[in-house]
Design brief:
Strands 3, 4, 5, 6, 7, 14 and 15 form a seven-stranded mixed β-sheet that branches. A six-stranded parallel β-sheet has the order 10-9-8-11-12-13, sandwiched between helices. A two-stranded antiparallel ribbon has the order 1-2. The termini are close together. Helix 8 links the parallel strand 11 and strand 12 (259-267). The chain folds into two domains: 2-153 and 302-351, Medium-chain alcohol dehydrogenases, catalytic domain (Quinone Oxidoreductase, Chain A, domain 1), CATH 3.90.180; 157-298, NAD(P)-binding Rossmann-like Domain (Rossmann fold, 3-Layer(aba) Sandwich), CATH 3.40.50.720. 24% of the residues lie in helices and 24% in strands. By secondary structure, the protein is of the alpha/beta class. It is built from ten helices and 15 strands. The longest helix has 14 residues, at 304-317.
Length: 353
Amino acid sequence: MRAYELGNRQGGAITLRPVERADLVPGHGQVVMKVHATGLGARDISIMRTPYPPAEVKPWQNPPPPERIPLQDSAGEIMAIGPGVSRVRMGDRVIASHYPEFIDGAWDFDTMALTDFGDCFDGFLAEQALVPADSLVRIPDYLSYEQASTLQSSGLTPWRGLTVEANTRVGETVLTLGSGNVSVFGIQIAKMLGARVIATSSDDDKCRQLLALGADTVINYRRTPDWDREVLACTNGKGADVVLNNIGMPTLEKCLLACASNARVMHIGARPVVGASTTPVTISSLPNLISKSVMIKGFSVGSRRMFEDFLRAIELHRLQPCIDRVFSFDDALEAIRYYETGAKVGKIVIKII
């Protein structure tokens, strides 16, 4: 099979190299997925730029293999089944959950974080992938492989934030930041739930695209750097009920300033985002947290059970994932370079087969 491996990453450079590997053979409880498509996210770029070996390895963590295959997103079909597998069949169209051990119930970092596609072991920038069968969900029939490859991280994360954690209600105001894949899914899911959406973006063309995708109001944050005040103005001084902060600490203060009383801030931006500020923020500088009784909730993707709920909902509503561009397998490095320009709206997909 053809694949890309991470090379020497000293100095933060991305050095992918194409390789030929032996075809995979499934063990007990495993399947081999023929990978049709994968996608790019901020987390993938951060992993690919992290120098190896890591500066520090936690006591509970073994160093990840240096020459592993990157990328966490997947969409493909079952091409081989190992012993003990009964929940999927040959030819099924499937996606692998981000953390194979996170099936249902509460998240447990000490066990589940050690099974992480593209980070702890091989990901999906390859023609084949070895996957635990219990982590798989079936692709809705109306979606192509390219569309399905956008769902695992970029779709499931805002789904969990808006439905499971924030319990977004009809008529509430949801604030999303930027025009990346998580933000775009956030807009689509929030509208599906009956919420009003305020979004931010960096230029007028992107603002128009977000309006076309369903946002009710879009604020150009370059032209309006105090966008938190504009959010208040758009809501008659009340503020947003739910905030999807996929940028991270650099925007947390303004997110809190834009909040309504009893708002829920979904803090899901742990990895650097292209163009994001690196200015440190301290908790002592964060207003509104107590005075408006705001909740900040951090989390990572979702369980297989949440993924299955998400797929049922989008199939019912026929949600159409927003793909900015599709690159061929041979152009994987070009896809990464394009991602880092920050020009995209939605997801960048790499077609494997």
